[in-house]
Design brief:
- The chain has 7 helices and 6 strands, in the order αβαααβββββααα.
- The longest helix has about 35 residues.
Amino acid sequence: MKKDIRKNIEKGVIFGLVCAVILGFARFEARLDELRDGVLRLHILANSDSDFDQRLKLKVRDRILEVTAASLENAGNIDEAISIAEADMGKITAAAKEVVSSEGCDYEVSANIEKNFFENRVYDDFTLPAGVYNSLTVRIGAANGHNWWCVIFPGVCLPCAKKGELEAAVSRGSAQVAQNASRYRMRFKAAEIYEKIKRKFSKK
């Protein structure tokens, strides 16, 4: 009888611990979802991995950051940022094509707002979790080369970015998770695995 009671207590404790872990991860994942939903990423795909095409990609990046910096600075939230980027798409595409042409290339260039999957990305001051993000995606030529990405809303990848821009776009709690990712290394890895599994099954 005592043995059965002890086993039931042990099962109860284990069940409680499992529930606590699941609830803790659910709360953490909710903060990561807010991060994913609150930023607009710039995603540039180079024509190829040749040295020339990779340098060209970076020149296109620099020009697009110049073109978008002033207008996106006026965005108060992610919806406004996407609307501004969509309104400026002709200007963004033209600027990218101008850079490509000035380098003596006739590559096709396209720019669109898309939803793309990104893996965990560590920047100097913060980390973005793996998952699906809104992105301003620019394809140069065949778009078969290594890509480059950063965050253009809030403007945390710009040289003129102000301290606290991430906090202005998402809650303080979510921003602190991104800015102190080393404290949550295992949770970030678990979230990345979870997002990859979720993405795999969503394709079926």
